[in-house]
Design a protein that fits this description.
The chain is of the alpha+beta class. It is 48% helix and 11% strand. α4 runs antiparallel to α8 and α4 packs parallel to α9 (209-224).
């Protein structure tokens, strides 16, 4: 069998497997598995992202404040007969996959026709109400799951951005509990959206773009913070999020790893 037609670039961690923890790379992986696409994973340490992207012809995803290119993962290279197509930025990748590899069944569309502006608005709400609060809650978990080189990288970036060590950015005590309450309120809003549509997912019986975003976030919490964040989330909204997570289990396959992750229902 020839090599998989898509090279998928994900961020290496120190979790055996390796198991990724980036919600953005996870949502692309979940969608590729949902579409049953063949791909191979190329693991890259954060310290090497720019070098690897430049070497492989992967474009930058945005610009830094000083105007220089910023390279991030996920990224893909689609090895098409007509030539390679290299894309970075998770939203751009998902839009490309939806266009190039549409599901023959319209009800399984990741981006149903005409819904992208609404889906992006919903995603923005998730960022504002949930993701934006996570950094002081999971920074030490994130640090502990990185490779030694990327631990040094995170420490340098944190000190440059905040003038503090990761240990000092992490919240403790009542300040930490208050931030967790804000995160829980964000999940409450999303839970009401799912209940309103009376389906398993945000738009009914099949997952859409935002569902994969949410599952990527849950996977990050599950693998970064299995002892604090994950039990909290599983206890919110009457156990909704544990059941929601389990609905995606069959899509958590990592090629070249022997089984789906996690190995059993949670």
């Amino acid at each position: 069998m020839r090599d998989p037609p898509i090279s998928f670039f994900d961020i290496r961690t120190s979790i055996p497997g390796p198991v990724p923890t980036s919600p953005n790379t996870w949502r692309v992986r979940l969608i590729m598995n949902y579409k049953k696409l063949r791909y191979q994973t190329c693991w890259v340490e954060i310290s090497d992202i720019e070098t690897v992207c430049k070497a492989r012809g992967i474009p930058h995803s945005s610009l830094k404040p000083d105007g220089t290119p910023k390279f991030t993962l996920p990224a893909i290279i689609d090895h098409k007969p007509s030539g390679e197509v290299a894309i970075s930025d998770s939203v751009s990748i998902i839009e490309y996959l939806e266009k190039e590899y549409p599901d023959p069944e319209p009800s399984r569309a990741v981006i149903p026709l005409g819904t992208m502006p609404l889906l992006l608005a919903y995603e923005h709400q998730i960022v504002v109400s949930i993701t934006s609060h996570m950094w002081p809650l999971v920074i030490l978990d994130m640090y502990s799951k990185k490779t030694p080189r990327d631990q040094d990288n995170l420490r340098r970036r944190t000190e440059a951005a905040f003038g503090k060590r990761p240990e000092d950015v992490s919240l403790v005590g009542e300040a930490r509990e208050e931030l967790w309450r804000k995160v829980e309120s964000g999940f409450d809003v999303v839970a009401r959206g799912i209940a309103y549509n009376r389906g398993q997912y945000l738009m009914g019986d099949n997952p859409c773009f935002v569902d994969f975003t949410l599952c990527g976030l849950l996977l990050m919490l599950r693998h970064l913070s299995p002892d604090e964040a994950w039990p909290r989330v599983c206890g919110w909204n009457g156990g909704l999020w544990k059941n929601y997570f389990n609905a995606f289990l069959s899509l958590m396959l990592i090629p070249n790893v022997q089984q789906s992750l996690p190995r059993q229902r949670l």
